[in-house]
Design brief:
This protein is mostly helical. It contains 14 helices and no strands. The N terminus is likely disordered.
């Protein structure tokens, strides 16, 4: 009978589970970004061909079973930690490290796609050369990201294990619906915009704030942004500037964990590309405008451009250089939208009615 009793997991088994957990969490984050919109059967009928409905339903069912098993098998702080860490790793740390390696390994090629040329290279003379601060930017930036993940996990642990109340984020086996995801993302990003503007302007650029000298001597010591510069700041200034505006909307609206991972993935990609220093970006209108405003803020000594997207700066009159409206007009001129509209108008007006 003793042979039928299950033995406790060995040290090797526990180590293997520890190695697998971040991979599973990161894979869940990526799957969440691509699989959730097909969670409603009615939606899949309209969006996908009939012959694909069975495979789509099977994928959704498989994802639901995997997600439910993960939720039931692990405590909520652990699930939130690995999900958040996996998202930041996949969508910010690894791409930024790749950009930093590219800029350092082939500076002759990288300088051609840098908005500000040599000054935006991590190993340039303006940045201090090979003995400069690039290694400090990488270590501090990575450490600040991990600090934010740890602090978020501590809040979750406080809610569930100390105060014995419901989790800070909604961690359930029920999948969020597409409309709920869209609504949470929209209001979360808008609240983040307002919080970033308020905290950045009045907590980090006010003469009466004790954080202003820290922000000035750390973040504003960089001549130009490059990979991992988004998270480079004094830890206290980073928490106020980046972590709180990102986490508080999710806490206030109590996002579903999968929605939060999508929200965090969007912000991570924004930080990765907007602070890369490249003039070739996936979206010239959105990311290009964000990057230009962040560069003017950093290289202009912190005069204006306090928000993420520039919407709050536009409303408060603190935009430096081109604002959001200017970005729309400029991008439209580049793509010749006005000429296309006029051409269609002439073509329509020139047709005679029969």
């Amino acid at each position: 009978m003793d042979l039928l009793k299950s033995s406790p997991p060995s040290l090797l088994d526990r180590a293997w589970q520890l190695v697998q957990t971040p991979y599973i969490a990161a894979r869940g984050s990526v799957k969440a970004l691509t699989s959730i919109p097909t969670a409603i059967p009615a939606l899949s009928v309209f969006l996908l061909p009939t012959y694909a409905s069975w495979s789509t339903s099977f994928n959704v069912l498989f994802f639901y079973i995997t997600w439910s098993t993960l939720i039931l098998a692990h405590p909520s702080p652990k699930v939130e930690f690995w999900g958040t860490f996996g998202t930041r790793l996949v969508f910010y740390l690894l791409p930024s490290a790749g950009f930093l390696l590219f800029d350092s390994a082939v500076p002759g090629i990288a300088v051609n796609i840098k908005e500000h040329g040599d000054v935006a290279l991590p190993l340039s003379e303006e940045q201090g050369g090979r003995q400069g601060r690039w290694w400090k930017v990488a270590l501090v930036g990575t450490g600040n990201v991990l600090l934010g993940v740890a602090l978020q996990t501590a809040v979750e642990y406080l809610f569930t294990d100390v105060l014995h109340i419901r989790s800070a984020l909604k961690i359930t086996s029920t999948l969020p619906m597409p409309w709920g995801i869209a609504k949470d993302l929209l209001r979360g990003l808008l609240l983040r915009e307002m919080l970033t503007y308020t905290l950045h302007r009045y907590a980090l650029h006010s003469s009466s704030s004790p954080l202003t000298p820290l922000h000035a001597t750390w973040y504003h010591s960089l001549p130009a942004p490059y990979a991992l510069a988004a998270a480079y700041d004094h830890p206290l200034a980073y928490l106020v500037h980046i972590f709180l505006p990102t986490y508080l909307p999710a806490l206030f609206f109590r996002f579903h964990l999968l929605t939060y991972q999508m929200y965090l993935a969007l912000i991570s990609l924004e930080e990765t590309f907007a602070y890369s220093g490249y003039n070739i970006l996936p979206s010239g209108f959105i990311l290009g405008g964000i990057a230009r405003r962040q560069e003017r803020h950093l290289m202009g000594g912190g005069m204006g451009n306090y928000s993420c997207w520039g919407l709050a700066d536009l409303c408060m009159g603190t935009s430096v250089g081109s604002d959001v409206v200017g970005d729309v007009v400029e991008e439209g001129e580049k793509r010749g939208v006005g000429e296309k509209v006029k051409g269609k108008g002439k073509g329509t007006g020139g047709k005679k009615r029969k």
